[in-house]
């Protein structure tokens, strides 16, 4: 397995529930390192750009409205197979379908308010990480 980086977003629902620490703990418990992190609130323009790939989908407006509804915690996670590992930890996009013990099964309420985002592939991870963090603000160790 290769050493990878992936972008994680703890979405407004999970920040509002005050479970940021519990979610970050799961990443660390699985051997992922938090090499960059910040609490921020996305503007509509930023959210539309970040989710640009979904612009034509029927859920786009609701997704953007939700993502700007409160602060989010954006992190870069680093580790062996970090992209797949994070996706395993998150569980299925729809929390009703997420396996027991996953972040979405434990903390998410709906497909929009689904607690976390994680990059789906190496190429998207690189683009998503650069969207939020300059390389100089990522602390690999
Ligand atoms: P991603 O697939 O990670 O780029 O994120 C798309 C996000 O859109 C998901 O995490 C969901 O929160 C949201 N979403 C809402 N409805 C749907 C849907 N029908 N299919 C996929 N994602 C959806």
Characteristics of this structure?
kinase, binds adenosine monophosphate, nucleotide metabolism, 20% strand, alpha+beta, 141 residues, 7 helices, Alpha-Beta Plaits, metal ion binding, single chain
Give your account of this protein's structure.
It is an enzyme of class 2 (transferase). The longest helix has 11 residues, at 122-132. The protein has one domain (3-137): 2-Layer Sandwich (Alpha-Beta Plaits). The protein has helices spanning 12-16, 20-29, 44-50, 60-67, 82-90, 103-107, 122-132; strands at 3-10, 33-40, 72-80, 116-118. With 141 residues, the protein is α+β, with helices and mostly antiparallel strands. A four-stranded antiparallel beta sheet has the order 2-3-1-4, with helices on both faces. The protein has seven helices and four strands; from the N terminus they run E-H-H-E-H-H-E-H-H-E-H. The protein is globular and about 40 Å long. Adenosine monophosphate (AMP) binds at residues 54, 59, 63, 93, 111-112, 114, 117.
Q: So what's the CATH class? A: Alpha Beta
What is the average of the pLDDT values? Answer: 98
If helices are DSSP runs of H or I spanning 4 or more residues, what is the number of helices? Answer: 7
How much is the radius of gyration in Å?
14 Å
How many structural domains? 1
Kindly state the percentage of residues in helix: 25-40%
In this entry the ligands are:
adenosine monophosphate
Molecular shape: globular
GO molecular function: ATP binding; metal ion binding; nucleoside diphosphate kinase activity
Catalytic activity: a 2'-deoxyribonucleoside 5'-diphosphate + ATP = a 2'-deoxyribonucleoside 5'-triphosphate + ADP; a ribonucleoside 5'-diphosphate + ATP = a ribonucleoside 5'-triphosphate + ADP
Binding site for ATP: 11, 59, 87, 93, 104, 114
Family: Belongs to the NDK family.
């Amino acid at each position: 397995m290769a050493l990878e980086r992936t972008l994680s977003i703890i979405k407004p629902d999970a920040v509002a529930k005050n479970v940021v620490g519990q979610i970050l703990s799961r990443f660390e418990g699985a051997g992922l390192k938090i090499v960059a992190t910040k609490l921020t609130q996305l503007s509509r323009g930023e959210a539309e750009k970040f989710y640009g790939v979904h612009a034509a989908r029927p859920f786009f407006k609701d997704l953007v409205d939700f993502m700007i509804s409160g602060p989010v915690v954006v992190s870069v996670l680093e580790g062996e197979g970090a992209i797949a590992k994070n996706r395993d930890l998150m569980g299925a996009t729809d929390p009703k379908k997420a396996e027991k013990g996953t972040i979405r099964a434990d903390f998410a309420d709906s497909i929009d308010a689904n607690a976390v985002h994680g990059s789906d592939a190496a190429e998207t991870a690189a683009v998503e990480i650069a969207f939020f963090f300059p390389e100089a603000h990522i602390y690999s160790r």
